[in-house]
Amino acid sequence: MNQKNRKISVIAGGALLLLLLPLVAVLLEETYFISLFSRIIIYGLAAVSLDLLLGYGGMISLGHAAYVGIGAYVVGIFFYHAQEMEPIISIPFIMHGSENALLVLPLAIIISGFFALVIGSLCLRTKGMHFIMITLAFAQMIYYFFVSLEKYGGDDGLSLYSRSSLPGLDLSNDLHFYYFCLFLLIGFLFLVKRTVDSRFGLVVRGGSNNERRLKALGINIYRYKLVCFVIAGAGAGLAGGLLANQTEYISPGLMHWTLSGELMVMVLLGGLGTLFGPILGAAVFLLMEETLAMYTEHWMVFMGPFLVLVVIFAKRGLFGLLTGEQNNNG
Amino acid sequence: MAERLLEVVNLNKSYGALQATKDLSFSVQKGHIHAIIGPNGAGKTTLVNQLTGDIDSDSGRIVYKEHNITQLKDYQRARLGIARSFQITHIFENLSVAENMALALFAHSGHNFRFWQKSLHSSSIRDKLPEALARVDLAARAEIPAGALSHGEKRQLEVGMALAAEPELLILDEPMAGMGPGGTVELSKLINALKGSVTILLVEHDMDVVFALADMITVMVYGEAIITATPEQVRRDTKVQTAYLGEEA
Asked: B76: buried, middle or exposed (CB in 10 Å: 19+, 13-18, 0-12)?
């Protein structure tokens, strides 16, 4: 099983790179790389959650940024109210703001998951092009809702002044924050990998390929797709919560369809249905943005053709090129 | 008097002006291999899709084990023990052969909201999986993606998946379509071996296969059942000869 070994070494190499990168950055006194790669890890997490929909569930969602944005706003709103010493809601019970990561990040996950449940339960009644458009429509509705929220900065968004607090770690320290994000990414990958290989995952992957056959076997795919949609939304919510911390800033831009599109590009670049590929995709996308943007603000002019080449010539994206993998999900 | 497993009463389906099935009535005895034959465009596949719930019927009744199932959805009918193969092969091309079979086995053993254990290691199928693969001669091909199988093997897999659900009524929609002579013999043997243990509704073009296997035959012409009888009677029937050979002086 040469190919299997090759895949394992690619993943191990990637993991080692991410683990050691901050140390090298500190040695070279290029600490800027730590925050750049924090961003890559967070976008990677969001892209992995989207891959669950695109690559495994066959659900082409063009509104995935909505859940990233909701996660970010949960962290942001709790932070804002903690700063202002003003309860978020006072009826029917009083709920205070908080800066505690152990509270706000799980809340970001739960609330994003809840939104995914409501939105997904409606969107999943449609298929194909309709599904794409309706996920987009919901995301844009949420975008405009937050644009209209004057209290939280409306169009301009909100600055957070500091990061969430976490017992034992100082998240304001870029090094601590980096490893915290990496830890969460690895945890999320582990969960998604188990899910994809499980009985539940088998049903979802089967449904993406041949829904009619699944029905003939007596399985109603709707509920499974919905749960998959919720898991993906929750993962995006976590990424959003981290992103709010990383940039110490939230704005409705996080929910805009352009971010949904960028996440999709990351998944396609890295490799659809490869689980680890989207992280590679996020890295390549953000590094290209970072370097090309130094020369021209129209860096997409280079990104576009590059994406076209990858999609045409590498069926399983850049990750597939590295591992020599051609098909079979997982 | 044998027990009646399936009864179709005055079933209708039209697509605009085209009446695909027209006041169709027949019944299938438990344990029989019941064949449906008819010239191209007679509405055989429409009938199959109406029986499995893939398409809704305009009017008429489908009675299965004394229950009216006409209003049930496709996956609900599948749970009652109606399994099918499709005329055009429907398998999960992106999954491995073993995973395909596992899905079929899972469908009839509780819910699928199990997120942790690896699917192929699940205790509810671990014992049954090798057996189910062996039954359709695919044990050696378990690891490869189903999309890479030959046409005949895909057919075998599909029939195997339909059987994995341990159905009471197995509907095979042109299982021999596109198969070479060798494959036809293999599949005929498989179907014959099932005789008695499961009721089979066989829709088929290959007359040799039909007359060799079937206990009863229903002949469809332009959406209507013109006769339901034993192979001997069908062979001698003048209406059938006319339908197949055209009106000759």
From this structure: middle
